[in-house]
User: Fold this.
Amino acid sequence: MLQSYIKIAFRKLWKNRLFSALNIVGMGVGMAAVGLMSLYIIHELSYDRFHANADRIVRVVHYANWPGGNLQLAPTSAPYAAALKNDYPDVEKTVRIQPEGGGQITYKDEKLTVDDIMFADQSVFDVFSFPFLYGDPATALAQPQCIVITKNLAEKLFGSAANAVGQTVEFSNHFPNRVTGVIDNVPTTSHLQFSALRSLPANYTNGWQNFELYTYLLLTKGTNPKALEAKLPGFFEKYIKKEMGDVTYRMELQPLTSIHLQSHLDYEISPNGTLSTIYTFAVVAFLILLIAGINYVNLYTVRAIARTREVGVRKAIGSRRGQLISQFLTESMLMAFLAGSVGMVLATLFLPLFNELAGKNLLISEYGLLTTATTLAGFTVLLGLASGLYPALLLSDFRPVMALKGRLAAYSTGGQFQQALVVFQFVAAVALISCSWVIYRQMGYVTTKNLGFNKEQVLTFHLDGDSVRTQIQALKNELRKSPLIEDVAAASNPIGNNNIGTNGMFFEQNGVMSASTQLVQTFSVDADYLGTLQVKLVKGRNFTDAVSDRMGAVLVNESLVKQMGWKEPIGRRVKYYLGKDQTAEAQVVGVVSDFHTYSLQHKIEPMVLQMPAPWERDNLYVRIQPAKTAEALAYIKAVYRTFDPSAEVTFHFLDENFSQQYKAEQKQGQVLLTFTVLAILISCLGLFGLAAYAAEVRTKEIGVRKVLGASVASIVTLLSKDFLKLVLIAIIIAAPLAWYAMNKWLESFAYKIDIEWWVFALSGTLAVTIALITVSFQSVKAALMNPVKSLRSE
Assistant:
């Protein structure tokens, strides 16, 4: 019996090649889209789960609020780990990670600039599971000036990972490090991404308010992180309150596996994903799959009209309803398996493009060929059953007499159900169009907004050698000799990378220095910085090269003046920590206009600018002539090598620094736009099916109208207006849904666009245009049919 069902199913598919092809391609595209989306979602949800003790590892983060300010920081200070281990028995081990360990590595004549190197305590391999290929994890970082490198880095430096252990590499400051271990490459599903780990001195410490490293805890078995977290308020009272003063302070223990998707604090150790992206992709995948299934229902129901007599004959000769349902479900399953094959081919072909859009390196067989094949087969069976059940029930329910006469008036409710499905399709399509347009406008806004300085044609590069930093003025003077160079400045960090840093400072109020600190951004710049970046000086004066300015003068931004409520900021005193217990005092000599040092997801914070110490002048800012980029870069490299012949210069343009911070949102927008186009195309197939259904049901009516003198235009209008009503209903439903979703998405930006009504009007107009084009094909075809044939159709 099954063999007979399959044979008949193949005959029907071949006989109706156009509709079969539309169905198979539509469903195949939907399955490919869902498969790629699923790969992405599974990959994002698997972050940090490969560690053997993943369920016992937490990261310490903290929050504080005070009048006029707040902090929410992922990094902590050096003393946290030892104090937590000492005070709480639930903490089995701790590890601190400091990400600023990169630079230029030299091995014999080989030089590599490797930025993703971190310092770590020797306990890092007791807490985390990074498999060793060579070396002993128990002692690899036990001694100072040791380094554990990944397999990739070992092969780049030494040709083979097996030759690495025991070798000595030198960093740019002539600081030797002995290779004590080689680990496997860090999985892409780790929020800690590095090429090497250097030993952090066991006695390394700093002030409680120098938040510069990340603290992880391995809890004892059976410990509930929330129960331990409830005990932590005493930690603040014991160690931190005396320095931070009267603030509302809270520590939190983040489960390791939640960091990638659920942590969005300041100074994250690596770019994180978002749950909202996962939800968005999951909803889009579900919608596309549903749209593809709806298409199947619509197109299959259209073909039901041509098979009514077949159903009547089968019932007349004794076929039971169950047998008819089995026949139609067999056809549905066959089509689903063909669509699954098409989907697999399409997914394989478009995976490289999807990886580029999503910024991933996913593989179809990432979780094993057997798992992939089993999942695809199960998914295909479910899809075939779900999408084929309604047409099977509808066709098998025809009464023999009515079916033999080819009359379907009694089944008009089926048309209403199909209309509801098409409305749903276009609700999804219009909502996706609107969301894509809002994301596009927001990305345009953040890339063109005035940042408070001129970012065009400004590049930065790191000064690796200590000797160069002591000759910074000579280097700047030499660069300025060329007309290619407009200005040069030195600073402690490049801006736009979201890593300037914060410190607690004391500020004068009403002639008295405050008893507690306030957390502010601190940034070290020289006297040429404002001129090079074209930052406006609002009040007072700029820095000078006088020795007194290096320790005794600061600039502040407008946000700090506003927060402090200073009517006259010039001359106000500021006190800050030099070390653990030492402090220094400076005066405000100038106020600069607010300018962005972070991306527009972040609000401009109160900031203090200081003159850099010699060792802090390790980043050079250079403004170059427009349209002379290649010549300017070559000149800068040539000049720099006269000061440091072995240097490898890596340039970063400020506009690119800022753009990198929106990479996740841009990728999200690109993926959403791509799948929006797919959703629209698949929806059009469904609308095409419904238009064909309507035209075939009303064939005789069209013939009568033409005999009575109706024009082609009036018939096209008659057949099209009902579909336009469906699209208009979809627009009304979709607009508030898209508005709500995009308002939630925009909440991640401190500076954002307003969502205006015309966005939805434009999306609706586009949807109406697409629907008209789709429907018009069938409408014109029906209107041009010979009325004699139309009148004989029944």
